[in-house]
Specification:
Elements (H helix, E strand, L loop, with lengths): L9 E3 L4 E2 L20 H11 L11 H10 L4 H8 L10 H8 L1
Antiparallel strand pairs: 1-2
Length: 101
């Protein structure tokens, strides 16, 4: 893919737009209340989420542990599930992360 004068790859070659990081803006800075989690939090959620298929939700502790075992999740994932109330049903990976994190 051709590069622009500043060395960045164009996002859309037809318009010549480029994506550049703003060195003055920290990686964890958000654009406002609706911007979502900071990058570190999003990466942590993604690392946790990779052990659970989307079809497992909603699920209780037993179902989540079964999914974690099936996907051969590491011990730290199983340890986090141990702290979950066995009677509680969790609707999403974000909720699970928030409860067990």
């Amino acid at each position: 893919m051709p590069r622009s004068e500043n060395g960045n790859r164009p996002l859309d070659q037809g318009r010549g737009a480029t994506c550049q990081a703003d060195p003055a803006r920290p990686a964890t800075e958000t654009a406002g209340d609706n911007a979502g989690p900071a990058i570190e939090t999003a990466e942590e959620i993604a690392d946790f989420a990779r052990w659970f298929g989307p079809s497992v939700f909603p699920a209780d502790q037993a179902e989540l542990r079964c999914e974690a075992w099936t996907t051969r999740a590491p011990q730290w994932v199983l340890d986090r599930l141990d702290g979950l109330d066995p009677q509680r049903r969790v609707a999403s990976i974000t909720e699970l992360h928030d409860i067990t994190g």
